[in-house]
Amino acid sequence: MLNNWLKIAFINYKKNWLSTIINLFGLTIGLTGFMLILMHWNDEESYERWNPKKENIYAFQTHNKAENTYGNNISVPMAERAVKVIPEVKDFVLFNGSGMGYKMTTKVKTVYQGEGMSASESFFNFFPFRLVSGSYKDALKGDKAMALSTKAAKNLFGKTNVAGETVKINNKSFVVTAVYELPEANSQIKPDFIFSPYEQMKGDKEQWGNFNYGCFFLLKSGTDVEALQQKFYDNIFLYRAKISAQGAGVTPQKYLELYGPTGSLFTPIDKIKLHAKASWFGNGDFKTMMILFTLSVLIVVLSAINFINLKTAQASQRAKEIGVRKAIGSTKSNLVLQFLLETFVICLASYLLSLALTELLLPSFNKFYNKEIVMNDWHIYFYSFLMVLAVTLISGLIPATYLANFKAIETLKGNFARSKHGIWLRNGILTLQLIISSFFIIGGLIVNKQVKYMMDKDLGFSGKQVFLINFSENSDKPWLKYERIKNEMRKIEGVADVSYGEAVPGSGRFSNSNMDYMDKSIFAQHGSMDYNYLQFMDVKLKKGRWLNPDLASDTIANVLVNEAFVNKFGWTDDQAFKNEVRPGFDNKPYHIVGIVKDFNILNPRRAIEPIVFFHYRETDWKRYNVYNIQLKIKPDDIDGTVKRIKSYWQKNVEPGYPFDSYFIDKKFAESFVKYQKQQTLFTILNAMVLMVALLGLFALSSLMIEQKLKDVAIRKTLGASDGNLIFGLTKQFLWITFIAVLISIPISYYLMNEWLKDFDYRIDMPVFPFVLSLISLLILTFAVVSIKAYQATKVNLVKYLKYE
Known about the structure:
By secondary structure, this protein is α+β, with helices and mostly antiparallel strands. It has 26 helices and 22 strands.
């Protein structure tokens, strides 16, 4: 019986070769997209799974409920108190720096070693890397202990058995206490060397408001995380507020409102890569992942729709076969199984083809996402095969049930074609397919318009030809280093101007603190800078004046602010000049002397935050954070100037260190990459959807028009013109398309409006994508269907009328 079913299946595949190819093509494309996105999702979820303690390690995040914003930092006394007073908290580890690099000297050589981390002494209790040399006991205790990865040990000493050896950094000696091997599995925490921020933590032990550390907590098994968040509020946040509120002259609750945070959030360590609201190691984007996954599933659904439509449209070709089989005793269940088998063979062939296509596209996909995914995870094969089975059931069971329900007597008489049931089924499914296609067209156009809007938006500064060099070598007095070299670098041929700014567009680096005025407080970014920095970056002055190096007050207590700063306090520009603010980084009042136009620093998607600009010498500690020098390069010989700058830097400023530099406009452009990739993927998926839908429409219209060739011959004999015949054959499909687009418009509007809500700088919902979707789909439908309709007008009249 099985052999007989397979023979019949292959006869039908050959007979309906166009439908077979379209089904194979559509399912292969759909399954390939599904597997690629599934592998991407699986790779993002696999981070930190190697850690044997992952079930009990949670990343700590703060939550400001009033503004619904999240942070990733904590202070030392908050972490220490949590261990003391909350029974569920067993231990904590603090991070104070990552991605660090130094020129290190050993008895063997002096080399630059990057990818370092500063972490508290309990680090290896959280991350039990395989120990190669030394001991983890007290491995990070004190300010002179250092642990190395096997890679760093080989770089510094040429071997891995180096526990007890000495490493010098800036004339300070460290003892290597342990050598570890980093896991090969995906991880965001892969430091090549680690030392403890011992001295800094010691100074921060009483600094409740110094949120300079990232944190993981080790919790007891079975901890109720929601209850733990409430305990943090009661025992940590409220406790801190009670200590500080008296000095601020407000209640603890008011203090929390002013200075926050007001809540905490805990994310399992193996979920932070994709699910964390805020993370020391980078925020995840689960929403985008779900959008991509949903779109990939929709393409598979469209392929299944093609299958259903084509199978039901072929009913007339199978009706007499079914009637005969029923007449000789075949049961309904046998017929359903037979048609399911036919569907499964196509789906299985598509699955095998999609595996080959996925392997072929994987290198390009990895390059696109900067990953190293390989097809060696059984989950990918398992879930993609489940999708094949689901498609088999969905796309096979509906037409199989429909065909198996034919009545033997009616089909043998030839009356099956008069049933409206199959027509309604096909039209309904075709409408669903066109609704999805319309959504993709509308969504694709809106995504393109939003990305273009962000890229074309006036950023409020000009980073063109501004070349930034980060200081790699630590200096006891970095501001003196900057002041020493800036005049020398001005002399380099091709350099037009030199400056320094802390808040650099695209750098991702920033610091902030509360800014207080009477009983109101806001958080503002710090923009320590050289006097000429804002003019250097072509930032526009809205009102007031620039800082002046000839005025002593401009180095002591005068600042500039941006428009967002003024708006956040609810002031007018004139009020801002009359009011003095007290920043969290100092005890004295500061006077605003100028207001600059807003310019974007962090992200083109987010609203511009309040910033306060001041000279780096205004505060004792800010001058120690001078970390770059910026040069404006003349346009006539940019490449030559960069070479001269690099040569001077490596010979006279930081010999032996990497030349860490970039053009600011190109660096800021990287912040658009994420959205450009979304735009590219949406465009690709859009093309795939339209291709699958239009091929299905072509095959379906071909089958349905084939069934009307006798009607066409009669009407042509009676004098109907080719134009009337073509319009008559396409009219039904045009109405279906029109209705589908009308249904898709409110759905698309709602979904795309939700997507746009993630952007503080967003377009108004445009009308043209909805109109263009209607017009383009009507044109494409007419073009696709009219091809077969035109062929139908050229039928041989004798062939279709000789039996009448």
